[in-house]
């Protein structure tokens, strides 16, 4: 009995040792640079459309750097994942960071300082408002990809069919909302989307609100301002009068498919999603500037991404090579647009033309939606600063929206609680704020 | 030479240690050490300074501050009220249904017992996440055939109310866990001596009387165990409300203690999350103690 079990154990141990040997043998074979020049492999995390295509195109044309792309979720989950990975020391070399989240990521110490050559590059290629978004505390942190200028997508066919003018101001938008409801009692001009608070934040930006500011060594948090109140009051009125849909996100998609949602506000990049989500409505959509508060056109940025190098990366140079390729070269932009899934508006003006040429506009009836987005760019209200704690702000506003949906809360009251909580959170993290 | 008494004992200790070592090793590595680390975290807080640009956060000792913050946070305390209400609704209903179904399965008239056992157990195999997504669909007005049908006959179901949200989650968990408990109760019923049942039959008791007065009391131990596990599981409620909240607007970020803790980790507040977790652990320990204590009297197993 004893000898038999001993024998069995010995066999098992032998098997394990040989398996281990096989395993090490394999990995050795793959790593040894016998006949190839040294290749630096960098990892890249993103949730942006066509990231895989961009990576493939880069790998095909480069021999010294090879990129391994890993899809991660967007939003709060993705940033949490990055933060934890940096702490654990297994973060990717290249990270995707939206402009709104950059201060948050810096407060977590997630990104490496890439000033130096990159500062010059950013200064020479990008418009000043975009430069400001990635330069904080006198250092450059990320390289910008796109400018998410906010525009209004609308159902051209339905507006024409019912002879409703495309609204240019918010007053006209309200009038159009009434006309839409009259034309089709089941339809509304847009959905009041409670789950995505990013659009709402940008509508405040467009109205001239400034939620974060720096005063000396401290952040000034002002969510609740007269400008914000104007925006909240306007939309609350539309909700109360039942001129916009106020339903869960799942239902909104169904209503869109049933031709019951006639406009969608969003960043230039949202065109790609619209196209993918509603293939049956090809040729029926068009793009127009965002309605403004007075006659002067005004827009805001919604979303917009940049790429940085994680603090723990040991391959900064190779990572930057990939980052600059995908953000500042026509090849990089072409690769992103070629798949047809992305409608990104590159932040570098010349590259926006490259993008326009590569984007299939059939969904928009051949309209040059890039021209609309490009005219919106210079109208983006200046002076807006993203502050740390935006993840909490987006979440907090989203929670408040749920109360608005059930009628327990009115929109003008959503700012107060979020502002109080944001300041408390920042202070709790040792950041000066008031 | 025959082995001395103490020598034997020593050798037995050696063997015992060898057999128990793996348990203690795993217990220490995966239970005690993480709890210890949680304890350390709960006494610290991540801090940066100034504008917080580019600075690496440091862990600063804050004493019991994280605990006082949690215990004075209305959201955290409110989350215990929510699970309390949820337990009051869910546990009696779920255990009651499971018990009745198990007794029916065990009755002399039951046919196709195996098929019914399998059918009842099926929902338990569905992963909680998937189940929650299915039910979220069934709860969404405009998408759900059930909600639409209910509205047609004039019974509007409002997920937007607090009661509606508790009901929705309790309904979902009942659907998931009843079958599991039926199996447990049914197994316990199988162990009830047949002669006791025969004796009751001879004494003139009907099926219902036997079920209620003979069988049910005899599996009291199994029921207590099921209640205990259910209480512990219910207080850690997370997945179901996390998914259903897409449709149920009153389920906020701190609806249950676990959701509250999750929300803190999302705000990078690991210290606060650790403190809240430890408080939840203590509450769970007390709750388990109370359940076993109150049900000890007359327990048969």
UniProtKB/TrEMBL annotation, chain A:
It comes from the Bacteria. Residues 1-23 form the signal peptide. Keywords: Cell membrane, Lipoprotein, Membrane, Palmitate, Signal. Coiled coil: none annotated. The keyword NAD does not apply. Pfam families: SBP_bac_1 (PF01547). This is Sugar ABC transporter substrate-binding protein. It comes from Catellatospora citrea.
TrEMBL record, chain B:
The chain crosses the membrane at residues 12-37, 83-106, 118-138, 218-238, 270-291. The keyword Membrane applies. It is found in: Cell membrane. It is a multi-pass membrane protein. Residues 80-291 form the ABC transmembrane type-1 domain. Keywords: Cell membrane, Membrane, Transmembrane, Transmembrane helix, Transport. GO terms for biological process: transmembrane transport. The keyword Heme does not apply. PROSITE patterns: ABC_TM1 (PS50928). It comes from the Bacteria. GO terms for cellular component: plasma membrane. SUPFAM superfamilies: MetI-like. Belongs to the binding-protein-dependent transport system permease family. This is Sugar ABC transporter permease. The lineage of its organism: Bacteria, Bacillati, Actinomycetota, Actinomycetes, Micromonosporales.
């Amino acid at each position: 009995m004893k000898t038999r079990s001993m024998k069995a154990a010995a066999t098992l141990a032998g098997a394990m040792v040989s398996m281990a040997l096989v395993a090490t043998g394999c990995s050795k074979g793959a790593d040894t640079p016998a006949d190839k020049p040294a290749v630096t492999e960098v990892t890249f995390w993103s949730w942006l459309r066509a990231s895989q295509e961009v990576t493939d195109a880069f790998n095909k044309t480069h021999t010294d750097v090879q990129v391994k792309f890993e899809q991660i979720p967007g939003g709060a989950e993705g940033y949490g994942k990055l933060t934890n990975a940096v702490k654990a020391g297994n973060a990717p070399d290249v990270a995707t960071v939206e402009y709104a989240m950059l201060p948050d990521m810096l407060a977590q110490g997630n990104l490496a300082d890439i000033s130096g050559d990159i500062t010059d590059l950013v200064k020479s290629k990008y418009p000043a408002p975009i430069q400001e978004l990635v330069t904080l505390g006198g250092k450059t942190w990320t390289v910008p990809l796109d400018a998410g200028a906010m525009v209004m997508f609308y159902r051209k066919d339905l507006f024409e069919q019912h002879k409703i003018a495309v609204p240019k101001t918010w007053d006209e938008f309200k009038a159009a909302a009434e006309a839409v409801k009259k034309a089709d009692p089941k339809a509304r001009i847009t959905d009041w989307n409670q789950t995505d608070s990013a659009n709402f934040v940008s509508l405040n930006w467009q109205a001239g609100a400034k939620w974060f500011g720096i005063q000396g060594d401290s952040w000034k948090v002002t969510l609740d301002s007269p400008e914000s109140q104007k925006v909240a009051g306007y939309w609350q009125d539309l909700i109360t009068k039942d001129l916009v849909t106020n339903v869960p996100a799942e239902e909104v998609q169904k209503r869109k498919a049933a031709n019951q949602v006639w406009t969608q506000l969003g960043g230039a990049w949202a065109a790609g999603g619209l196209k993918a989500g509603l293939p049956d409505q090809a040729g029926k959509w068009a793009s127009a500037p965002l309605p403004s508060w007075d006659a002067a056109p005004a827009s805001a940025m919604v979303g917009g991404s940049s790429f940085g190098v994680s603090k723990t990366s040991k391959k900064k140079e190779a990572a930057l090579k990939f980052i600059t390729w995908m953000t500042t070269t026509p090849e990089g932009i072409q690769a992103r647009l070629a798949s047809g899934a992305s409608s990104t508006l590159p932040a570098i003006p010349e590259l926006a033309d490259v993008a326009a040429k590569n984007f299939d506009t059939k969904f928009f009836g051949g309209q040059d939606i890039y021209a609309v987005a490009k005219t919106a760019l210079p109208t983006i209200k200046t002076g807006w600063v993203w502050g740390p704690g935006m993840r909490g702000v987006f979440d907090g506003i989203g929670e408040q929206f749920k109360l608005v949906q059930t009628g327990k809360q009115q929109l003008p009251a959503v700012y107060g609680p979020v502002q109080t909580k944001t300041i408390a959170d920042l202070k709790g993290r040792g950041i000066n704020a008031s | 030479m025959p082995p001395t008494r103490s020598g034997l004992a020593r050798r037995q200790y050696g063997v015992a240690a060898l057999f128990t070592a793996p348990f203690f090793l795993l217990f220490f590595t995966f239970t005690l050490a993480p709890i210890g680390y949680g304890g350390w975290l709960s006494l610290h807080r991540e801090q940066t300074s100034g504008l917080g640009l580019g600075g690496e956060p440091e862990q600063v000792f804050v004493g019991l501050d994280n605990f006082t913050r949690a215990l004075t946070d209305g959201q955290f305390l409110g989350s215990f009220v929510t699970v309390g209400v949820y337990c009051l609704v869910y546990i009696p209903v779920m255990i009651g249904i499971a018990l009745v179904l198990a007794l029916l399965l065990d009755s002399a008239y039951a046919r196709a017992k195996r098929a019914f056992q399998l059918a009842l157990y099926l929902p338990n195999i569905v992963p909680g996440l998937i189940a929650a997504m299915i039910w979220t669909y069934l709860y969404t007005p405009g998408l759900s055939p059930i909600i639409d049908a209910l509205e047609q006959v004039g019974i509007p179901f409002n997920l937007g109310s607090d009661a509606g949200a508790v009901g929705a989650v309790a309904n979902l968990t009942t659907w998931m866990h009843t079958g599991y408990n039926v199996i447990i109760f049914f197994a316990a019923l199988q162990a009830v001596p047949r002669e006791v049942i025969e004796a009751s039959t001879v004494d003139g008791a009907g099926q219902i009387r036997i079920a209620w007065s003979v069988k049910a009391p005899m599996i009291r131990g199994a029921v207590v165990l099921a209640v205990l596990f259910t209480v512990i599981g219910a207080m850690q409620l997370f997945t179901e409300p996390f998914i259903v909240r897409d449709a149920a607007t009153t389920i906020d970020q701190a609806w249950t203690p676990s959701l509250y803790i999750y929300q803190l980790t999302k705000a990078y507040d690991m210290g606060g999350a650790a403190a809240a977790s430890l408080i939840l652990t203590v509450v769970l320990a007390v709750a388990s103690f109370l359940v076993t204590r109150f049900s000890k009297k007359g327990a048969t197993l």
